[in-house]
From TrEMBL, chains A, B:
Biological processes, Gene Ontology terms: tetrahydrobiopterin biosynthetic process
Entry GO MF terms: 4-alpha-hydroxytetrahydrobiopterin dehydratase activity
Protein name per UniProt: Putative pterin-4-alpha-carbinolamine dehydratase
Listed transmembrane segments: none
PANTHER family registered for this protein in UniProt: PTERIN-4-ALPHA-CARBINOLAMINE DEHYDRATASE
The EC number(s) this enzyme carries: 4.2.1.96
Superkingdom of the source species: Bacteria
InterPro entries on file: PCD_sf, Pterin_deHydtase
Enzyme class, UniProt record, top EC level: lyase
Assigned keywords, A-Z: Lyase
Reaction equation(s) it catalyzes: (4aS,6R)-4a-hydroxy-L-erythro-5,6,7,8-tetrahydrobiopterin = (6R)-L-erythro-6,7-dihydrobiopterin + H2O
Organism the protein comes from: Nostoc azollae (strain 0708) (Anabaena azollae (strain 0708))
Family per record: Belongs to the pterin-4-alpha-carbinolamine dehydratase family.
Length: 97, 97
């Protein structure tokens, strides 16, 4: 899925509704902290199911109870797209549930 | 779990039985390729269950169908221990099953 590249304004608006997310090296980035490895991995699995449904996947790094996430749309010239925002929102929703 | 630090000889012997694994920046490293994101994540979950049982966890980075793994024992002065070898062997076993 390619999505569409967000304008600077659209990106800023989206970031306002995504606490803890920032732009880092051209990617949408957040560090997620959990209270255990099992909780972190469980969150990754639930997010993973949604990533499969969306056909849009994260880049993520896990060490014990921390997951560092980078979202970018490779099919779209490595820009941040609406799909990255959608996936970030889904991650937030699952994290707070 | 702290495990025990491996001697140079023990480490070399262990590496001989771990195809594709190498020492990289003081950690036991391997790049795993899968045929899909779902297969990669499924492998991570199965490995994760064993990591919990062992009380010893990997550092891993996933992008779509690739997982880069680093194993090191933080409780043991950031050295490679018998626990890292044990976890690597478990990863191989699950990967080839």
């Amino acid at each position: 899925m390619a999505g569409y590249k967000l304008s600077e304004t659209e990106l800023q608006q989206a970031l306002n509704s995504l606490p803890g997310w920032q732009i880092k090296e051209g990617k949408l980035y957040k560090e997620y902290k959990f209270n255990s490895f099992a909780t972190a991995l469980g969150w990754m699995v639930t997010v993973g199911v949604h990533a499969e449904i969306m056909e849009h996947h994260p880049e993520w790094f896990n060490v014990y109870s921390t997951v560092w996430v980078n979202l970018v749309t490779h099919d779209n010239g490595n820009a941040i797209s609406n799909l990255d925002i959608e996936l970030a929102k889904k991650m937030e929703e699952i994290y707070s549930s």
